[in-house]
Amino acid sequence: MVEPVIEIEVVYAAVDRQILRTLSVPEGTTVRETVLKSGIGDEFPELDLSECPLGIFGKVIADPQVRLIQAGDRIEIYRPLLADPKEVRRLRAAKAAEAKARNQ
């Protein structure tokens, strides 16, 4: 018997380029398995696809080793943050306050 397949997309955006792959995978494949099968790891060897955070349509998946994909899903591979957003806001606010003090 032929195993049913579903079509999904896997996307990754590096700093300098983006990639989107459309895949047909067997029904019952997990999110993590799909990403590993996508071949994106070959194009971005610095990525650890077995550990990196994943999401579907902008929502982080808590357990991608268990979550099964559904037809039409767009799996997103997230890269680590280069800076803590709270720290960046704090520095920006301090810089703005300093500029304001100089202009008075």
TrEMBL record:
Coiled coil: none annotated. Gene3D superfamilies: RnfH-like. SUPFAM superfamilies: MoaD/ThiS (SSF54285). Transmembrane segments: none annotated. Belongs to the UPF0125 (RnfH) family. HAMAP family: UPF0125_RnfH. This is UPF0125 protein FHG55_23620. It comes from Pseudomonas jessenii.
